[in-house]
Structure formats: structure tokens, C-alpha cells
Amino acid sequence: MQIILRCVLDTEEDVLRDISISDSQTLEQLHDAIIESFELNPGEMAAFYKTNDDWDQGEEIPLIPMNEREQTPVMNQIKLAEICSDKDSKLIYVYDFLKFWTFYVIVHDLKPDTTAETQTTLKVGTMPKDAQDKHFEANLFDSFDNFDDNEDLDPFDEDYPDYV
Question: Domains of the chain by range and CATH?
């Protein structure tokens, strides 16, 4: 099966590539294809992340093992057929953890195996020189919203003796 993956760079401008790749290839081979297609400098750390329809970042699949004690699978151990088996499949790809290039990878189409060659079939936009600044937002005080009601916060009940 040939998978057409649409890789969309997280940036203000439209920058995307469609990559045609066999489902027998690994995530590491997809990683190499993305680097080549977007003309990124090779040799940086990278990871894929499983995601849902809302693009919530899930389980990490790193390029190399990050912790020898954990048995987390790495890119060269996972075939695309295992993770991109239907048209609803999505991944987040992060390249260069200092610049934090972020790509949304979507299964755009599935075709019978017409060629085993990995190739870029569509290029839109040019890669910016610098990665877009990431602004991570989190409401750190969401968990404190439940404490707005002070009526249950009486420090002592009437049976508690007074100490001086």
C-alpha cells in the first residue's frame, strides 16, 4: 500500500509537502523523507507523537532511545502500516528540539502499491529560515477554581480548644 502523507508546517504561511511512501517503510524513513522534502539540516533530534482529532500530543516515538531503562519503541522499529493504516490517522512531527520545527502529518490518501519509491508529490510554500516562536499556554490555576467557595474552609470547628 502506498500512503500519501500531507506534512503541514506549523507556521503563518502555507508550507506543506505531500510525501508518497510505502506502508512497509518505517517512521525513521518517513523522518528522512520529511528532512529531504523540507530541506532541513540533517542530524538533529526528532520525534513523532501520536495524536487524536484535536491534535492533542500523545505518546512519543523518538528517533533514538532516550532512556535505556524504558522500552519505548523508536522510529526504526515502527512500520507506517502500524500507525498510518487509515485516512483518519494523524501524527505530530517535531524536528530539532532547539528550534522546535513542528509538522502536522495527515494521511491524505491510500493507494495500491504502485511504486516502492518514496517521493515528494506536492510542494506548497517555502521553508522559512527560522522556526516560528512557540507560545505554550496553560492555565496553571484551573485546579484552584474549585476553591472559590470559602464556606467549607472554616479552620476550626466549635469543639476545637483554643490554644494561646
Answer: 2-124 (3.10.290.30)
